[in-house]
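REVIEWER CHECKLIST
Item 1: Sequence provided? yes
Item 2: Single chain? yes
Item 3: Sequence as submitted:
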Amino acid sequence: MRKLKEPKFCQYEVSESDEGGITLHCRDRIDSSNAAYMIKELSPLLQNRLPSSLTVDLENVTYLDDFGVLVLVELKKIVTNGKGHFYLKNSSDKVKKILSLLNFDSLEGRVSFTKKRPPGIFIRLGEATLRHSSDLKYLVSFVGSVCLSLIYICSHPKSLRTDDTLLCMQKTGIDALPIVGLISFLLGLIMAFMASIQLQQFGANIYVASLVSLSMVRELGPIMTAIIVAGRSGSAFAAEIGTMRISEEVDALFTMGFDPTRFLVVPKVIASVIVVPLLTLFSDVFAILGGLVVGVFMLDITANAYITQTIETLELFDVFWGLLKSG
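Item 4: Structure as written out by the authors:
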């Protein structure tokens, strides 16, 4: 037996047999205090020699923890990668218990990954159908609860939380006015510019006012306003109620005898029904102003002529039809 190394942190001896095998005799403790040092010292030795086998003698090891098991795993991996064999011998009952607890025999095993075949289009379609069908019952239940709460509010007006309704009206309406005005103004600007390119060929510049006013008041104004309110205020309401759900505030309302739908949802619904038509009116006005800018600066139409053409084109039915859609 030829002694090669005995570091100060961990007592061990390395001996090499004539057949090219190496035996590692460990003593005392193999734990977190010396695991890194042992890996650093033994890894180059095994990688350079590439032994046909490595036998670790644990007879004199008094303590072994998960860091010590990590040392054994690293040594086993180095040897097995070099086509060698790894053996443990003379393990005490305590060491065997730790090795069994950490499932040492399978720690160094390579996990075989099999490529999972993606599901076909019909499978995905069926899964989506089943998922949405399952969600439909919750949607129906929620809509029914909101309708019943609205009926109760109509029969008991004093039960409506007025302060929360006014606050929701401010968040949904007043706070959303800048973004609604900006988008509507740019939309009217773009529509007027695109229409002017074609109408100029026929000398029908004045009808740019008619096109912008009719399309915004009847169709695009309600649609754009609803999209903005749904994306801005709707997502904020959903996030607020979702946060209350996670923090168990909704359950607290149940415990205190409050109806969460009547307490949380109805003020937001009433505020949206009142505010969205008003936002639609502002959207129509800003879009007409955007078309006015194009008409005045690009088509040489006076502001008076543009406004007059807009008034002559629109009827009260068009305005109320757009408000009905937005409501």
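Item 5: Key structural point noted by reviewer: The chain has twelve helices and four strands.
Item 6: Recommendation: ____
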